[in-house]
Write a structure and sequence with these properties.
Blueprint lengths: L3 E4 L2 E4 L4 E7 L1 H4 L4 E6 L6 E6 L5 E3 L7 E6 L4 E6 L8 E7 L14 E6 L1
Parallel strand pairs: 2-10
Antiparallel strand pairs: 1-3, 3-8, 4-5, 4-9, 5-6, 7-8, 9-10
């Protein structure tokens, strides 16, 4: 069964931190590169960070130095540690396999809302 369950979002003040988690079914996680995406109101979904099966990570310029992606292959779980949060980080955050833009097709979980107040 294909399943993605994101959690850990919430309301935080600017400068604060959150840690997101994503439990993925084996068929999605497996040996695939995984990624976090986000979608703000009125904007297209964008790639935030991705991580290879071996642990190599890449980040969008807007989050480099503030966010850290990691994965636990034994638990089929991917994480996103978000520090020094800014109001512009407010969005619904999703995890999934590393996809090609425009990041809309296929199965997506419900996401987790992150709201950063100024």
């Amino acid at each position: 069964q294909v399943q993605l369950v994101e959690s850990g979002g919430g309301l935080v003040q600017a400068g604060g931190s959150l840690r997101l988690s994503c439990a993925a079914s084996g068929s999605i996680f497996s040996s695939n590169a995984m990624a976090w995406y986000r979608q703000a109101p009125g904007k297209q979904r964008e790639l935030v960070a991705d991580i290879s099966s071996g642990g190599s990570a890449k980040y969008a310029d807007s989050v480099t130095g503030r966010f850290t992606i990691s994965r636990d292959n034994a638990k089929n779980t991917v994480y996103l540690q978000m520090n020094s949060l800014k109001p512009e980080d407010t969005a619904v955050y999703y995890c999934n396999r590393r996809k090609l833009p425009p990041y809309q097709s296929g199965y997506w979980g419900q996401g987790t809302q992150v709201t950063v107040s100024s």
